[in-house]
Amino acid sequence: MTSDFPPQLTLPPAPRAVGTVALPGSKSISNRLLLLAALARGTTTLTGLLESDDTSVMLAALRQLGITIVARGAQRYDIEGAAGPFPGKAADLHLGLSGLSMRTLVAALALSGGHYRADGVPRMRERPIGDLVEALRPLGVDIRYELASGFPPVLIGPGAPHAAPLRVRGDVSSQFLTGVLQALPLLRARVAVTVDGDLVSRPYVEITCDLMRRFGVDVVSEASAFVVRASVGYTSPGTVAVEGDASGASYFLAAGLLGGGPVRVTGVGRNSIQGDVGFAHVLAAQGADVRMGADWIEARPGATFRGGTIDCVAIPDAAMTLAITALIADGPTTLTGIASWRVKETDRLAAMATELRKLGVTVEEGADWLRVTPPASLNTATIATYDDHRMAMCFALVCLLGTAVTIDDPGCVRKTFPDYFAALGAVTASHGGK
Question: What are the angstrom distances between the C-alpha of 205 and each of 89, 195, 273?
Fold first, then answer.
């Protein structure tokens, strides 16, 4: 895994992008699988596991909680499950900037009968967790806020967990519902979870349910509710392969569009369980030439690339890349349904608008939408990344639009794609910048 990055990385104009990229494992799938394997009966072997800051945080936390994890080579791990709650009954966990780790572990810890503290970097203390905590309270859990109400760090006590109907707010982050669903099998009872409001990022919840079923727990979606059936808890399915990262695929599919292509990504395709493969369908609807196989997707320009209004509720992470492909559209592009950007690694909606304006782009923004009007030409600019991996990966693509771009703190890509710039360099003339 790449570890050394300069403070800034300048990418000169790249005239072409063409080639094939083998995607790293999906972060969303990797961290879900790690937790399910830790709670399951039996030993689970995970192959193709993403090696990144977010998975390192989860691996370290599980080891602190008494889970035996053995590395068996590159991206291959054996996880000896606890067959129920965590065996470690006291731990002070530092979860960095991994929102998924925070929200899923807090729910599982609340049903594990121990004394725990969960904290992260300063930005993590600004990312809401109150909706998760309030959703769990009917179960008799003991969760308190150490500092600001509704935000980490949180203190968790043994409580007196029991089954009860739950309600989870769905319009801020789907990770709250994922955290609740993944933890509920620890009760070994039937529990219905009603979702209040519109559920953002529903495909991520479908990933959660799919993986829970692989570990032997039945989850049924009924109208605005999810029902976790009574069971004996999770059971290891043996060996599980992690899909390639569909969110990461978006940058290279966009590179194929912006740089002439074709650029092909492998490890994800039409058989993917990840909602972010929908990004490829959006590009195709806008006019890109997109082709897809069982485990690969390829993109290149079509005749005309159209702007318009795009509902991004189902692809919030990959939607950021659409703000960059909008720069070659035949008119303004409006991205809607992106309120969840506000509570990510940074306020991505404000950050995207600010950095696009540096390039000379006309940008309008609202509470849950962003409108990008392509300029006649782009300015050379230095892009702030706000310790957000997706800001760095998106704006690196500007080098394919005939202008140099400088990325501040390129090392923030360690969060999910440590070798991103090397992979981008392999398919462009810039070969990773200078």
Answer: 28, 12, 11
